[in-house]
Specification:
InterPro entries: Macro_dom, Macro_dom-like. The structure is a single chain. The protein is an alpha/beta fold. The protein has a domain of 183 residues: 3-Layer(aba) Sandwich (Leucine Aminopeptidase, subunit E, domain 1), CATH 3.40.220.10. The chain has a six-stranded mixed sheet, sandwiched between helices. It is globular, with a radius of gyration of 18 Å.
Amino acid sequence: MAPIPISEIATLADLYASQTLHPSNDTLPNATSKYNAQISLIRTDITTLATDAIVNAANDSLLGGGGVDGAIHRAAGPNLLRDCRRLNGCDTGDAKITDAYRLPCKKVIHAVGPIYDSASARRAGGHEKLLASCYTRSLDLAEESGCRSIAFSALSTGVYGYPSGEAAETAIKAVKGWLEEDEGRAGRMERVVFCSFLEKDERAYERLIPRFFPPASAETAGEDANATQKSAGEVQQPPAAKEGLSEVPVLPDVPTKEPTNDLQPDGQPEAKKAKREEGTETKGSL
């Protein structure tokens, strides 16, 4: 699959304008449309995104595994595993950054999300706190490294068992809070992309994002399609539109199968799932 440049990733403003994303009847009191041209939602293979950084759903060893984690390691090549070996693992709720090598992005941020039903997650203060920290730490690392765009995989929603709705809500809250905390920093982060691989995660984001980031015209919330279409012209346009490119970007085809998850990046059998089933505290991808 060809790399997808940031200019071809639809923003929330684009998705509202095309009626791909619809207003919520339950918009939150602190909802804002201020960042609609900076936030994107897409369902695709994250290894194809040409953002400055992508966020890997890593395990605490940072040495690869199955699912998205394994796909990122395979696409990046062996140098990524070499760099990860030097990082000495990563705590749950934290993240570390490496170069991206063969990937179309510039950096890979490896975030370790919580296992939803693990005792360690409960002892550390709860799943939501740990998962939210993955997002804010990743944003901090991206900003510190000069990245102006970042794409998140749906952290912890795979074999780690985090329900898609709860995970999406935590992710959206964390990103919104990070943007609002420092407007200067928020202005330097030109794009934050929520990238789902599975339909269940995409649907969760589609349902929850409008509650936090409604269309620019609040009067359209809960109205019929005609009212939504009428307000689309009021939605803030992304930089490309301001330069005369008025067409809404065409979304790429969604993946039809999950990444291969039976091998480690170095060709060894993937043992993560088996270890988890044995009741160990070893973390797995996602």
